[in-house]
User: Fold Probable G-protein coupled receptor 173 from Crocuta crocuta.
Amino acid sequence: VKLVLLGLIMCVSLAGNAILSLLVLKERALHKAPYYFLLDLCLADGIRSAVCFPFVLASVRHGSSWTFSALSCKIVAFMAVLFCFHAAFMLFCISVTRYMAIAHHRFYAKRMTLWTCAAVICMAWTLSVAMAFPPV
Assistant:
């Protein structure tokens, strides 16, 4: 039952994130700051589902024991922590930019460009990597 549910979670996550990513990329009206952040969040979650979940499935299949090398354990643990912190930082950035869009509309409209979005996304990834290294 656990394997089926984990497999279902992985498939739904991959499909949902792929559909939403394609929608944001294809629809011209969605080429705005909040949707770029959402696209980054979808891609990161999709990568986490594709990379980390197969190892979890294999571990559960073998009685919750790790059958891979110690290095792969550290890499998968690092990636799991990385993507969790990235999701937290991106959700924080999305909430701040939504506040700015509502409370300071003129400033937000002038300053929130594609390059600003890229800088915010790079900052979230940098912070995520910095937070993910100490546990590993």
